[in-house]
Amino acid sequence: MKRKTLKSVFCYSATVLALTFGANLLFTPNVYAESYESRTNKDSGIPLFDQVPESTALFPETLLNWNPKSDPDAPFNVSKVPLSTRVQGKKMNLDQSTEAKVLSIAIVNQHTKGTPSQGGTDKAVYNFTNWQYVDTLVAWAGSSGEGIIVPPSGDVTDSAHRNGVPVVGTVFFPPEAYGGKSEWVEQFVQKDRKGNFPMADKLLEMSSSYGFDGWFINQETNVNEQTASAMKEFMLYLQARKPKNQQVIWYDSMIPSGNVAWQGALNDTNQGYFQEGKKRVSDKMFIDFRWQGLVSSREKAAQLKRDPYDLFAGIDVQANGVNSRRKPSSIMGTDGNPLVSLGLYCPDWTLRDGGQYDIDRYWENEKLLWINPQGDPRAVESPKTEWQGVSRYYVEKTPVTSLPFLTNFNVGNGDAIYKNGTKVKEGTFNNRSIQDVMPTYRWVIDNDEENQLEAAISYEDAFNGGSSIKLTGQMTADKQTFIKLYAAQVKVTASDTATVVTKGADETSLVLELKGKEQPLTIQGTQRPLENGWVETTYSLKPAACQTITTVGLNLKNAQTEAASIYLGQLRMGKEKATPVSAISNLTFSGKTIVDDLTESIRMHWDTKGKNTASYRIYREVDGQLQFEGETANTSYTLLNQERTGDTATYQVIPVDHYGREEQRKGAAAVYTFEALKKPEITINASNTLISVGETITLSADVSKSTDTVSWEVVGATPESASGKEVSLSFAKAGIYTVKAIAANATGETENIKENYLHVYDQNAGIKIENLSTLPTTTATQGSGYTNDRESYRFALDGNLNTKWCDNGSEKPWMIADLGALKTISGFELFHAGAGGESPEWNTRDYDISVSSDGNDWTTVVQHRGNTANSSKDAIGLVEARYFKLSLEKAEQNGKTARIYDWQIIGVNQTGIIKP
Asked: How far apart are CA 256 and CA 223, in angstroms?
């Protein structure tokens, strides 16, 4: 796979862009075993977990030991949404192919490991919605430090399946330069005594247990010929045993000799991983980006009696997106049709490199990448020298093939959650599990005369979920705007109805195209006002009875000539009828994670047959009312950040049918017990511990969330007593001072005393506080390792934020600094990845600093946990030391690579300041 020039801020040998990138690709020593240990609260009997459920990421040996029954996170990674049936819509422009397909290889989650299983409070996630152009999604992930066998998270599978798109997980064997190990491949393809492939059986078990649709095998580790042959046999084994709905996708990388030699084509060398005689080895092949011409690949597929559209020519858009050298037009033949199918690598560029996690930029980039600059799939103005958008050459598909059909235009993230037009939960969120089927066409709008409406996804208001479609622009009185929303293939009866919920439109007509009819059918409806300005319009579908609807759209009118803002909140089609929804039973709390002493995240599970059930809503009983807390399509769910208001709380889970109706009588309730409230914890920090007379310092207290008051006493300070989590004070006299702080809550008080913590010196004492790391005598020659000579330990001590120490090969990186002689130390400052221009996600999270006078006996003086900042300061009570050990207990927010741009050891270049 091709490599790109890297900026100096990255670990030179840690990161590869393109398929060898993975998601935070890291070195690691042999790490195989994963534990799923938990503790049990003695009061409630509920298991305690250190974190909320996370998506799975394994190595070969941990895959072999994986069992969904013993993995407590497994139930939360399941998708229970079946794969919807899809059909093609009508061609929106003459260039669209009805045969070629699109494979999206997207980094759907920011990290390989540490991804919450069911979403969270971060709005800026890759909540992809242009499913109408994608035929298969590869949930791309993999890291030699975090896991190389990575199934898709259940929320991604839910949203894809609802839109009719199969999802496959990733098996990623990295190149050796990026942590790949040939023994991983050898373990993967090893047979048991009966001639079976245990790893293949485990892959099938996992895809069946989690509900996704197969595997993408990306083998880029050089191995021997025997292992390469075993890999092909492994794939044939998978083919023979996988269900019909599963697929195996091969990446053009390794060849039969075992060498990694990207061919950039289907040819005689790599054809054996695609087809072996009459036996299908892989269902699809992703052709590496090196392809120059595709005619020979198409011809080779025909020779093998395979559909050429099972081949996907790769276009790498990870770094440059719509400015990439290759365009969708690059795959076209002389007849204007695609020679093979299209494979997009990292279209998540729209959010990452191209959007920098800005949601407004994300939606604009999505329009450019998938549609075109005009935001209309009918437009063909873009020349072939520019990015034309995927819609130019690939026809739209739709899962609207049966009734009832319901959409709230909910994309699965937002700034708040709404229910029936009323805001029921504040705060940003992402929950891709409940993403709706979004419009097939983005956007097909026809404005009469001077109407100027344009459409966009909006988080400003919603009917259900977190978003709606907002149309804005000038409208002329009684002139209509038509918006085509969905392609469909639905046969209706005389008793079927449709409803549309809008805000800001005086008149909304339903417009249906019918199979075999040249003119669309326009149906007027009956309006009914709802809460908060929303209006429901109901239509009888009797005029379309016994006919097949092929598209669904709306005509919008206003009575006044003025600027308009119209929101589309819901579309529902199908006869309103009673449906027997399965009851919920055995609602239990399967685990908890303590966020702080007033906040817990709660794991829930319930049993149900799930008949006629679209989702489940979870409520908390508060003052006799039901307070919305979450929604899922799964039967296991984690309620995040539940606030303690008493010793217990009652929760209800209510099933929701496919018409969006709650069946409260079929729900279940259970009482949850919070951890017993204890006296508060308190730690004391100072901005500086070595200060001059008259200098102002800040004392701060890290306390439990339940803390009501914090009081301070520092005898000899001005002032001597104060209250609050942060106070400022100074000293009129030189000396050594003790700090006392007391935290109190409803349970009691906790006192913390730091004896002889603050050293105050006279301004004429000649004391100079400086960064001792840059002294000529300071060296660094010991540590866990570094990537290369340009990223060794010494660059953490040079005072230059353009250089760094980087170690991507250790579980817990560490380094030792030697000042050359004893010095007086008052604190430290660390500059992490973000300080050097890299992602704050790579900032060190947890670290310790220890000191020694002889390099043998060590005393830990700093234990810093939960850091997210680009730089962090730690003041300590004065010590004399020569050696300093920095131990990164958690080198990133989720990963294991050390990135320290500067480590300042703050103190005085002398001893004797500390008095006995």
From this structure: 10
CA neighbor of 110 nearest in space, from 417, 323, 356, 367: 356
Closest CA to 149 of 79, 61, 211: 61
Rounded to 10°, the helix 198-210/225-241 angle is 40
Q: What is the DSSP string of 20-43?
A: TTTTT----S---------EE-TT
Q: Name 872's bridge partners.
A: 830
Helix (H, G, I), strand (E, B), or coil: what is residue 825? strand
What the block records as the tokens of 135 is: 């035929």
Whole-number pLDDT of residue 39: 63
How distant is the alpha carbon of residue 402 from its chain centre? 31
CA distance 43 to 592: 13
pTM for the predicted model, two decimal places? 0.89
Could you give the residue ranges of the DSSP H alpha helices within 141-224?
A: 154-162, 182-188, 198-210
Distance of CA 567 to the CA centre of its chain: 28
- Provide the token pair at 625: 């009312």
* Whole-angstrom distance, CA of residue 265 vs CA of residue 263: 5
Per DSSP, 219 falls in state: E
- As a whole number of Å, the CA-based R_g of the chain is 31
Indicate the DSSP class of residue 394: B
Looking at residue 24, its pLDDT comes to 34
Coil, strand or helix: which one is 357?
Answer: coil
Write the pLDDT tens digit of every residue in 296-329: 999 999 999 999 999 999 999 999 999 999 999 9
By DSSP bridging, strand 214-219 and strand 247-251 are parallel
**Given this model, what pLDDT does residue 660 score?**
95
Burial class (CB in 10 A: 0-12, 13-18, 19+), 553: buried
Q: Is residue 44 predicted with pLDDT exceeding 90?
A: no
Assess contact for 392 and 93: CB atoms under 8 A: yes
Split at pLDDT 50, 70, 90, the class of 45 is confident
Rounded distance between C-alpha atoms, residue 855 and residue 131, angstroms? 59
CA distance 390 to 130: 10
Quote the pLDDT of residue 280.
97
Q: Give the rounded percent of residues in the chain with a pLDDT score beyond 90.
A: 91
Strands 47-48 and 39-40: antiparallel
The answer to whether the CB of 533 falls within 8 A of the CB of 527 is no
Task: With CA atoms as reference, report the closest residue to 324 among 391, 252, 389, 392.
Answer: 389
Q: Where are the alpha helices (DSSP H) in 478-583?
A: none
Q: What is the pLDDT of residues 452-508, one digit of tens each?
A: 999 999 999 999 999 999 999 999 999 999 999 999 999 999 999 999 999 999 999
